[in-house]
Amino acid sequence: MFAPAATSPTTAAARLLRASLFSPSSHSHFLPPTSVRSSLCFSYLPIKAMADTTSVSHPITASASSSDSGRKQALISLSDKKDLAFVGNGLQELGYTIVSTGGTASALESAGVAVTKVEQLTQFPEMLDGRVKTLHPNIHGGILARRDQKHHIEALNTHGIGTFDVVVVNLYPFYDKVTSTGVEFEDGIENIDIGGPAMIRAAAKNHRDVLVVVDSQDYPALLEFLKGNQDDQMFRLKLAWKAFAHVSAYDSAVSEWLWKQSGGDKFPPSLTVPLSLKSSLRYGENPHQKAAFYVDKRLSEVNGGGIATAIQHHGKEMSYNNYLDADAAWNCVCEFRDPTCVVVKHTNPCGVASRNDILEAYRLAVKADPVSAFGGIVAFNVEVDEVLAKEIREFRSPTDGETRMFYEIVVAPGYTEEGLDVLRGKSKTLRILEAKKNEAGKLSLRQVGGGWLVQDSDDLTPHDIKFSVVSERTPVDDELRDAEFAWLCVKHVKSNAIVIAKNKCMLGMGSGQPNRLESLRIAMRKAGDDVKGAALASDAFFPFAWKDAVEEACESGVGVIAEPGGSIRDKDAIDCCNKYGVSLVFTQVRHFRH
């Protein structure tokens, strides 16, 4: 028989660190940041709390140099003191002298840890309301000195400076402070940490000799590593990476806040987007593509809603395509004021209906294209109760009246407990999401090769624009309401996009065709005979009218057409509609979606 190989403490530490760095449940998983001035850059660490503001006592006496005494020193300065006693006692038990500041020192002493205060090393008191504590050669010299450089050690000995082997630091709670309500500018400024990032960066730069920890989840891995009394440069390197990522994300929040305070343009000369890994995905758009999902941690996204912050109550883990489709469905349904159901397939709404009775809205949305709806995403802008949940669970496909409808995802702003219980019984894999409306006014980012396109989000609704009648025939009130409904639907359909609707219900849509005429024909085929008297909306103007899309729409019997206008052949469209007695309204707003 073979006995299992023993696991060294160093190996155990590496495993603990890997778990901390890469476990989907941890808030400290991020890719390394990159910074490119005047372009988009990404950093990947959640911004946590930072170094103390509590004052420390006046200097007592200089500490003997640890560089020539063999004494091991650890510097601890924390604002977020989670598990402080654990790491402090653990380091002390391993023979480390603990050097600390202010409130951290007091908390350590209360936990029974012997502490050397920073001013005993610097021989200088804390000053300027705590702005200057650790910015001193006796601190930074001990962090930055390379142990393999003789002249570095000689310089430390000359000046009586001891080395630090471990630096445990986190930062002032700037992110939490400036995202709280009623924060004053001066409060924000005073929560910009200076000494903390300096110590973190110094220790991370000198990671071959100094272990730097910025996340309490790494305390167990740190102690296991130190117990091993061995060296593992990869362990050190990963901690250093995490430290720089932590500071990078922190700095991005400060930069974003200051730019906003300065009244700067919406598009600053440089833009940093800190991303926090939410989960690793099974694969990307296709099985051969690896993928992950990140949450946008910009200050502007705080309480901003959207699918990224949705709560999953049930079902299989979300996939790359699930996120895209759920986002499309949720953004669409949230635009409607009346109780509405939206069904999405491959990011296109294939069924939309608004009714006071949400059950009827659901049935009509599925009926619009039951073939596409099968395996799609269904979204509601009202709470899902037990009655609606039962209808979702039991509803049969309108194509045969027998096949129970299957969905990948249900998303809504809320659920009753009874409603959740019913939906959980529909399928083990059905993903049930509870989301908050995506707030208006955000920036929309999209990647192209080597760069990023940034624009305002398309937040306009029918209530924000004027539908101007340009034809001889004026649409009646019901027709105009249907034109507004169709226009709101077409905004969420991939260009070239056409939507036909009647009685606040989508009858058919054509999407993604390279010419508008083809999209029109697809939409009319889906609408069938119901097209007569219906409203038609186009995401952009019609370049041709006669013997083209406008005339075909008029010949089919539509009652009103809504389009932006702006073509050099607008008069042809008007004349064509007048010939057939069709109302034509211009919105002056285009809704391309690529």
Automatic annotation (TrEMBL):
GO terms for cellular component: cytosol
GO biological process, one term: 'de novo' IMP biosynthetic process
Record's keyword annotation contains Transferase: yes
Pfam families for this protein: AICARFT_IMPCHas, MGS
Occurrences of domain MGS-like (ranges): 64-214
GO MF annotation list: IMP cyclohydrolase activity; phosphoribosylaminoimidazolecarboxamide formyltransferase activity
Protein name, per record: MGS-like domain-containing protein
Keywords: Hydrolase, Multifunctional enzyme, Purine biosynthesis, Transferase
Alphabetized PANTHER family for the sequence: BIFUNCTIONAL PURINE BIOSYNTHESIS PROTEIN ATIC, BIFUNCTIONAL PURINE BIOSYNTHESIS PROTEIN PURH
SUPFAM superfamilies: Cytidine deaminase-like, Methylglyoxal synthase-like
Recorded metabolic or biological pathway in which this protein acts: Purine metabolism; IMP biosynthesis via de novo pathway; 5-formamido-1-(5-phospho-D-ribosyl)imidazole-4-carboxamide from 5-amino-1-(5-phospho-D-ribosyl)imidazole-4-carboxamide (10-formyl THF route): step 1/1; Purine metabolism; IMP biosynthesis via de novo pathway; IMP from 5-formamido-1-(5-phospho-D-ribosyl)imidazole-4-carboxamide: step 1/1
Xref: NCBIfam families: PRK00881.1 (NF002049), purH (TIGR00355)
Organism: Arachis hypogaea (Peanut)
Family of this protein: Belongs to the PurH family.
Keyword hit for Hydrolase: yes
